[in-house]
Structure formats: structure tokens, C-alpha cells
Amino acid sequence: MTDPLLPHEKGFHVSWDQIHRDSRALAWRLDGKGPDDGAWRAIVAITRGGMAPAMIIARELDVRTVDTISVKSYDHQDRSEATVLKAPDADMMGDGTGILIIDDLVDSGKTLELCRKLYPNAHFATVYAKPQGRPQVDTFVTEVSQDTWIFFPWDMALQYVQPYRGKD
Ligand SMILES: O=P(O)(O)OC[C@H]1O[C@H](OP(=O)(O)OP(=O)(O)O)[C@H](O)[C@@H]1O
Ligand code: HPA
Ligand SMILES: [Mg+2]
């Protein structure tokens, strides 16, 4: 059966400019919300997707200590069990108090659920959120429907498209 939806109707395509603006908006929401006079002790990016937003947020909030947690949950668009491939510095993390953990998006919530078990007092923030994962995220900017696939600029390239009326 042919799919009734055009590609652009199934996907939410995010440009570099938009991820920059949305990551800045997330930073401004997080500003002054840390436990220590409003300051955050460190930012931890969930690799790989959280790295670009985390860099932008670290710059906006003037946080110089940035670490990573490597979590793998998907092979392309297929979900698998979330596993930690590399943990951040244990002494710095403690139970997560004062740590801002950033990802590009929350979908099923499995990635953040795993990170929350490890660092229960950290603050979890994502740029985008789908409804199923919302309970796992403390702060986000934009919600999209569960059946929308978000395409990030690092996974895309500019290419020619047929005019709309040229399609059959
Ligand atoms: O809420 P969930 O259902 O767990 O999905 C969200 C996670 O999935 C993607 O990462 P992925 O594991 O594909 O790795 P990547 O960031 O390296 O692309 C995305 O960047 C989030 O980290
Ligand atoms: O919608 C998505 N887009 C990109 N990566 C993802 N990983 C889980 N969900 C998504
Ligand atoms: Mg990821």
C-alpha cells in the first residue's frame, strides 16, 4: 500500500539555525535554576545528539566544565536496549546534584530513564520532547507528536526536490 503521507509531513526537519535558536531558548529557561545560588556545577552531554545543544547551552550559561555520557539506544530508527558505553567523571557527578544533563530529544524516555537511575539528583533537559518521554525530562523547549521523526541537521544534506505539483 502506498503511504498517504509525503516525507515532509512525517518528519520534523530541524536546520542548524533552528537547533541553535532552540538550544539558546533552552539555556535561557535553565538560567539561574541550579541549586547553588542558581549556578550549575557542570554540564553533561548525552552523546552524540546532546553534544551540539550542550555546547551552545554551556556557552550561554558560562559553564566551563563539560563532560559526556555515551548512551546508545538506536541503530538508525530501530530501538534497542539503552546501554552506557562511557560514563562521566564519577567524582564530579556524585548523585547528580547541580549537574545539568542535556540531550537533543527525549522519545520513549529510555535513555533518560537509564541516566536518572545513575544520577537521580541531576536536572535533565532536552531541546525536543515526545509525549511518551515527557515524564523523564525536567525542562524542554518544543513538543512534537509521538509519530513524528525529528531529523537533525547533522543527519541531513541539501538536495534537489521535485516541485509539489510535479509529484504523482
Ligand atoms: O528517549 P529515547 O527513546 O531513549 O530516545 C532518545 C535518544 O535517542 C537518540 O540517541 P541515539 O541512541 O540514537 O544515539 P545518538 O545520539 O548517538 O544518535 C537521541 O539522541 C536520544 O539520545
Ligand atoms: O525522532 C528522532 N529523531 C532522531 N533521533 C531519534 N532517536 C529517537 N527518536 C529520534
Ligand atoms: Mg542520543
Q: Notable features of this structure?
A:
single chain; 168 residues; alpha/beta; Rossmann fold; six-stranded mixed sheet; two-stranded parallel sheet; 5 helices; 8 strands; 26% helix; globular; binds 1-O-pyrophosphono-5-O-phosphono-alpha-D-ribofuranose; binds hypoxanthine; binds magnesium ion; PRTase_dom
Structural class: alpha/beta
* Principal-axes shape call: globular
Oligomer: single chain
Q: How much strand?
A: 25-35%
**Series of secondary-structure elements, N-terminal to C-terminal:** HEHEHEEHEHEEE
Adjacency order of strands in the biggest sheet: 4-3-2-5-6-7
Number of helices: 5
Overview in brief:
With 168 residues, the protein is of the alpha/beta class. The protein contains 5 helices and 8 strands. The protein starts with 6 loop residues before the first helix and ends in a 17-residue tail after the last strand.
Describe the protein's architecture and organization:
This protein is of the alpha/beta class and 168 residues long. The protein has one domain: Rossmann fold, CATH 3.40.50.2020. The chain has 5 helices and 8 strands, in the order H-E-H-E-H-E-E-H-E-H-E-E-E. The strands form 2 sheets. The protein has a 6-stranded mixed β-sheet with strand order 4-3-2-5-6-7, sandwiched between helices. Helix 5 links the parallel strand 5 and strand 6. The longest helix is centred in the N-terminal third of the chain and has 15 residues. It is globular. The site of hypoxanthine has 5 residues, from strand 8.
